[in-house]
Give the backbone structure.
Amino acid sequence: MIRNVGTCRIETVQGDITLEKTDAIGNAANSMLAGGGGVDGAIHRAGGPAIMAECRRIGGCPTGGCVVTTAGRLKAKRVLHMVGPIWNGGENDEAELLAFCYRSALDLAVEHGLRSVAFPSVSTGIYGFPVRPAAMIALRTIAAFLRERSAPELVRMVLFDPGTRKAYDEGLAELLPDIAADA
Ligand code: AR6
């Protein structure tokens, strides 16, 4: 699905984010930047040791934040390591922290001149954030940022499984219902 926000675009696709050719890809990292399973494991495997070497130099990142590194052997130029919250019932600032990590990633993308960014569905795997609310938070935060800053030109949500893709498609249609630019 595609929606325009001013001169920018939000897309939802199903796929493997390690294959993306966008200027940057997002990673669902942990606050130690220590690597792990899920999309984090896939990115480090595909990108090679240069990414972890830079993560070690940086040392860590608070929940809700983001740091940028090389993308090693990946086609993307940079990895935006986003530290999403661990779901703990919903009364522990999970929503705010999830919004912060997308905003931090977009701020860094603009600062580094990255014109296209692919994001995974942060926190909705091992960290257990329910997918539907996570999708709305991600999409609302991204749309607000694009409206305000008119950059990056493209934000592509790369969703790994059909259920997650469906949640983001429904969320995007609900959030931006009036623009008939489906694909
Ligand atoms: N491309 C796109 N999305 C993917 C890929 C991929 N190659 N692989 C998995 N996903 P998760 P979290 C999806 O668990 O919940 C790690 O150990 C996955 O299906 O990767 O934020 C970190 O080190 C799900 O929809 O991230 C942290 O400790 C989404 O990516 C912790 O997990 C996020 O799932 C972070 O947990």
About this structure: The chain is about 40% helix and 20% strand.
